Amino acid sequence: MSAPFETINRPSLIRDAARLQEALAELIRVLQFRDRDRACCYDLSVSQCHALETLIQHGPMPVTQLGDHLYLEKSTASRLAKALLEKDLVRKRAPQADGRVVILQVTETGHRLARKILNDLADEYMDLLEEFEPEVRAALPLLLDRLTQTISGRTDPQELTCC
Amino acid sequence: MSAPFETINRPSLIRDAARLQEALAELIRVLQFRDRDRACCYDLSVSQCHALETLIQHGPMPVTQLGDHLYLEKSTASRLAKALLEKDLVRKRAPQADGRVVILQVTETGHRLARKILNDLADEYMDLLEEFEPEVRAALPLLLDRLTQTISGRTDPQELTCC
DNA sequence: GCTATTAGTTGTTAGATGCAACGGTTGTAT
DNA sequence: ATACAACCGTTGCATCTAACAACTAATAGC
């Protein structure tokens, strides 16, 4: 008697998938707009801001690795590094064993700026979080991490899956 | 004896806020990368894809309104429309009462392409959703919508708040 | 009917990004 | 030991994105 599994579950899955797609698309648009709007306040581009944040979160790293974190080509990463170097937000660490690599390290200036940015953002996020129920509030970052990881794992790590 | 409200709750709020910031930053990077990777498969730019999706989701609308939906300047919206027109994905609706406005309407070709894109994405999202518990699965889009709305409401609707 | 406002287009500019080519460095195999 | 391959980073070039400003055409208000 039981209806086949697929006829019950697939349609609802498809609906959820479509709604998830819409929700993510809208979220990305809003976030991009907000970031464009905000980043300029600190005389940084959005990418530069992401790069700084990544270097702080994961510690000093070579240019290429920074690119990997940001899903950017090494040439783009190189130019990002150049911009941050010129603003004295990062510096090149003393020569390493391997003479090819350039280890990028956040300067004190960079840390100060990042703290300021994070503080400003945290103020906004705290207001935002207060509109959510406490359990949602705590679960939200975890859920987003899971979502990110799943999408990231699904998107080919290095090579483009495109076309 | 009871510790003051703030000393207990503020720090946890601050932590949640910082983690939310990190999670959203990473999510946006992954999504941007994925979209860059995917859009080219359909001979569309990422923006063009968003425009098409918006026109389908909200129905025919003038150029400027499309720009509002996408948080884009009207000139950018105009060029987006031009690109979609040239690809025969949208067309200009017959002249309206107000002779200035151009109502953009998705063509049959546009609908076909959008369906294809959505199907491909839905396949991915369905796999993705299966990794979540059923109740999370259903709640996820709602939660993301709420998040989007809150951020969007907080980001100034039209004027830039920057600097 | 003038003038102000609005919708859309186009010119120009700036920034972001990938690809390709190159230069210097390291590692490996003969 | 030397030659060749692989790798890291940089730079030149092309494309895409997007804003701002100037302009045209159409509407609205007086």
Write structural notes for this entry.
Two copies of one chain form a homodimer. In chain A, strands 1-3-2 form a three-stranded antiparallel β-sheet. With 163 residues, the first copy, chain A, is mainly α. In chain A, helix 2 packs across helix 4 (74-86) and helix 3 packs across helix 4 (74-86). The first copy, chain A, has helices at residues 5-39, 46-58, 63-70, 74-86, 108-130, 134-154; strands at 61-62, 90-92, 103-106. Chains A and B meet through helix 1, helix 2, helix 5 and helix 6 of A and helix 1, helix 2, helix 5 and helix 6 of B. The first copy, chain A, binds a DNA duplex (30 and 30 nucleotides) through residues 36, 45-47, 62-64, 72-82, 98-102.
Task: Using brief descriptors, characterize the structure shown.
homodimer, 6% strand, 163 residues, DNA-binding, mainly alpha
Order of strands in the sheet with most strands of chain A: 1-3-2
- Fraction in beta strands of chain A: 5-15%
Total count of strands of chain A = 3
The stretches of 5 or more residues of chain A where confidence is low (pLDDT under 50) are none
Specify the overall morphology of chain A. Answer: globular
Helix content of chain A: 55-70%
Order of helices and strands of chain A: HHEHHEEHH
The N- and C-terminal alpha carbons of chain A lie at a distance of 44 Å
Instruction: Give me the number of helical elements of chain A.
Output: 6
Largest sheet of chain A: 3 strands, antiparallel
Q: Which protein chains are joined by the largest interface, and how many residues does each one contribute? A: A-B, 64 and 64 residues
What's the gyration radius of chain A in Å?
20 Å
Quaternary status of these chains?
homodimer
* Helical/strand content category of chain A: mainly alpha
Q: Which whole number gives the mean pLDDT of chain A?
A: 85
